[in-house]
Amino acid sequence: MIGFPSGFRFFQAAALALLALNMRAQVPVPVNFCGSMNPDGTFALTWETPPDADPDLNYELYRDDGTGFALLNMQAPATNTGFTDFGLDPNQVNGYYVRSVFQGDFSENSEIIFNMVLSLDALSQSVAVLNWTAPYDDPMPPGQYEVYRTLPGEAPELRGVLNETTFTDTLQGICDDSVVTYYVEFAGANCTTRSQTAEEEFLDIIPPPQPVIETAVTDPETGDIIVYWDPVSAPDLDLYRIQDIDLLNQQFINIGVVQAGEPTEFIYEGAGANEEKTLAVIAFDLCGNDASFSGTATTMFAEAEYSECATDAMVSWTPYAGWPEGVDAYLIKAFIDGGAEELMGEVTGDETFFIAEVDPNREYCFFVEAVSAGAQRNSTSNAACVTTDYPVIAEFVYNSYVTVIDNTTAEVALLQDPESEGMTYELFRARQTGGFVKLGTFGQTGQEFLIYTDTDLDTRNLNYRYKWRAYDGCGVFIGESNVGRTMTLITLADTRELANVLTWTAYEEWENGVGRYRIERRVGREGPFEDYAETDGETTVFTDNVEEFRFEEGEFCYRIVAEEAANSYGVSSESATVVRCITQPPVMWIPSAIMLDGEPENRVFKPVAAFIDFDSFRMEIYNKWGQRLFTSDDTEEGWDGTFRGGFVPPDMYRYIISYNDGSGKPFVEQDVIYVLKHN
């Protein structure tokens, strides 16, 4: 607090006071002396003239900058009741008073006022500490301090009303480094005094408070998890982010957002149907600062085990975690045959299993309800359902098909009885005439077929047999299926007849055998297979005449598909062999001579080719000295016995013909050709 200077200042003040006492009746004292800092750094002083003052009354304004009071200004006449001090250092405290002067007489001095000096310190990037000097000496007149803050681009905002000369402000919502301006006003009974402005750079790095999860509840009927938490209080709170977390592996998955102001609950759809979940809630402010989480809630996951041949079911569950007071008890409940929930029993908060007595031929959907030892709402688990009736036994065990997928893979399909329940099946495989070996055990599925893919086979050369053994829901063996056997295909090229001979092993063992065998064929290396021919269910040999394709590359691919004859199950299946490709050997008919003056068809040396890759064809003609006379890449272009515009002399010439067959294998034909002439 600023006081009077010592020495001369004290003497001067005392003398003035004494003089004013003597002249009080003649010279009225100015009243309501006020001062306030302007935004431009000047200090505005005002006072009022008493109603009975003489018009010739003058005022003198004194200022003390720390070296003692000195006359700052003479105001004349008395109607001038204000002054602006342009020479003031706004960061230094100065004292002021006014006195009246009339015809050489002086009044008492007015009260002394001071300019308020504000200091601003950044306690952190987000906390501002303000201190300021008082505008009056003790005792302070009635009034309060008002602290104003101005953010970039915004109007001043009142941040506090108080009696002290210090204030701490927490800045929230400032997401980038920003210059923040403050000033303080003293709101007195007669006037308002304002400090200079002070500014500093701030950034909001303060997160909102950490949310506390009340309870996480799993809806037994839907598997939805509903998490409830207590709202946090923060002026710049933006949203809550809900996370599904795995603390062991440090995995955090964002599953939803709830905006500030909305009910503090979130539905995690279907998440609790198959496993327990650990959830956390994190609060974020407008700048993205987050409070992490103070605790988590882990839902319960219930499972029920029932042996259809028993009279009870065991319900087990993972414990609920997240209540500070812990779990007081677990209530085991059930929906029986889809009805209302019924209480089946109760255990302490330390137990996580329960043996429930059940009646046969009913459906029980068990769930667990945790009761908090505190005041939180109860939490429930998912529903774990079992049926207590004896499983319906399958009326048939039918190996629907065994088919080859590729050279190493076969697929086996069991036609399942849709009316049966809880069946289990064992699958066995045997190589041709070897013994059966178990491949695995499989539970009944809700699909039409139970399909198994067998790998690491040699389906091109070996037949494989498969069968199923069936057990009812109580594990009692009820029988074996028919045996299904893969087919193998052998292809042979008949070069004499220009045909491909196909032979395959018969499919075994459908109920009514094979209805027909369908032959699928592909000509060439690429392109789709097409249904080409068929045989009856007893014929496993077929000859394919391919002479019409002699001008193609000569590669042919085949697959045999066995179609099941109609059976009593209403589902007819197919079984296929591997794809076998065969290449017809290339054929090249080459003339031995040409007659230059003979018949037209005898004047040109032109080989005739079949079953070759015509794009690979090349023919060259040489004389006996090794000079090349002719070359061609076109089987339709022959040599007419000319060279450089004239006929070559009758003689023996050499030809070299190269080409590939349909599979890419290279061939070379070379020999001599005789050029003849009658005359």
Q: Could you say what the CATH architecture of the largest domain is?
A: Sandwich
Distance between the termini: 144 Å
Structural class: mainly beta
**CATH domain fold name of the largest domain:** Immunoglobulin-like
Number of domains: 7
What's the total count of β strands? 56
Taking pLDDT < 50 over at least 5 consecutive residues as the criterion, the unreliable ranges are 1-25
Mean pLDDT: 90
- CATH superfamily assignment of the largest domain? Immunoglobulins
List the helices and strands and how they pair.
Blueprint: H1 8-23, E1 31-37, E2 43-48, E3 58-64, E4 69-75, E5 82-85, E6 95-102, E7 105-109, E8 113-114, E9 118-124, E10 127-132, E11 143-150, E12 157-162, E13 166-170, E14 178-188, E15 192-194, E16 198-202, E17 212-218, E18 225-230, E19 237-246, E20 251-259, E21 265-268, E22 278-285, E23 297-298, E24 302-306, E25 312-317, E26 327-336, E27 341-348, E28 353-357, E29 363-372, E30 379-380, E31 384-387, E32 398-406, E33 409-415, E34 424-431, E35 437-443, E36 449-454, E37 464-471, E38 477-480, E39 484-485, E40 489-494, E41 499-504, E42 514-523, E43 530-536, E44 541-545, E45 555-564, E46 574-576, E47 580-583, E48 587-589, E49 593-595, E50 608-610, E51 612-622, E52 628-632, E53 642-643, E54 646-647, E55 651-661, E56 666-676
Parallel strand pairs: 49-56
Antiparallel strand pairs: 1-2, 2-5, 3-4, 3-6, 6-7, 6-8, 9-10, 10-13, 11-12, 11-14, 14-15, 14-16, 17-18, 18-21, 19-20, 19-22, 22-23, 24-25, 25-28, 26-27, 26-29, 29-30, 29-31, 32-33, 33-36, 34-35, 34-37, 37-38, 37-39, 40-41, 41-44, 42-43, 42-45, 45-46, 45-47, 48-50, 51-52, 51-55, 53-54, 55-56
